[in-house]
Amino acid sequence: MSELERVPPGVDPRVPSSARVYDYLLGGKDNVAVDRAVADKLLAVAPDSRQVARANRIFLVRAVRHLAQQGIRQFLDLGTGIPTSPSVHEVARETNPACRVVYVDYDPVVRLHAQVLLADAPGVASIQADLRQPDAILNDPHVTGLIDFEQPLAVLLVASLHFVTDGEDPGGIVAAFRKWMAPGSHLVLSHTMAESRPEAIAQLAKATAGSPAQATFRTHEQVLRLFDGFELIGPGLVPVQEWRLSDEDEQSIPLLDGPPALRVEGGVARLAPR
Predict the structure, then answer these.
(1) What pTM was estimated for this model as a whole?
(2) Which of 17, 156, 258, 267 is the most buried (most CB within 10 A)?
(3) Rounded to an integer, what distance in angstroms lies between the CA atom of residue 80 and that of residue 13?
(4) Superfamily of domain 3-243+252-271
């Protein structure tokens, strides 16, 4: 069966998808030729990008596990990407099986996979929506049916806001979700950095120009501003492979020979008192 036949209706196999490129870097199979071409061009100048992608995933797992252990029982995952095990609900439910999760992604391929995988998972939902439209997400019946905004919530923006341009106001998007978050809520965020090697930035920009997979690289200070209204915990905003809260987090760190060409930083923050 050709790739043209394998993609869902509405998907253009000639246009790269950030979710599918990420899937390929993680070793997944839910990608097509155009996605692999983008990833291979990045790997040519940033050969450690697979390890960085894996480190970003480990950062997500560590953050979710920590928050579940701290009593967070609700997770809103914005820009989910193609499901990868362990998923957010699998990690959270290791601590408490009552944890509820809503996955959000605009990519129809993500939605298709989520429908299949979550069909028999009560307390977990997936919606196809764009994080650039917070009001539509926050008022979606699947979200309001599972998330109690009077209780603490974790909002996950892991490797997703760099696909939002400055003109689309990423800070305003975070602020829109922050307004709905109860005391005790947390934000988990990771982002590609302008401190990456110039050749990696240039190659990725060239390979994804004009597509939804095109990223905006922001400086450390610019990403810090996305945490306005929150208080960073643990090590703060650091390269994802360095984010840890305990000795247990020393395990499963991807091997990196020096600073990665493609730098991704992440942080976890608690909602500041109003």
Answers:
(1) 0.91
(2) 17
(3) 20
(4) Vaccinia Virus protein VP39 (3.40.50.150)
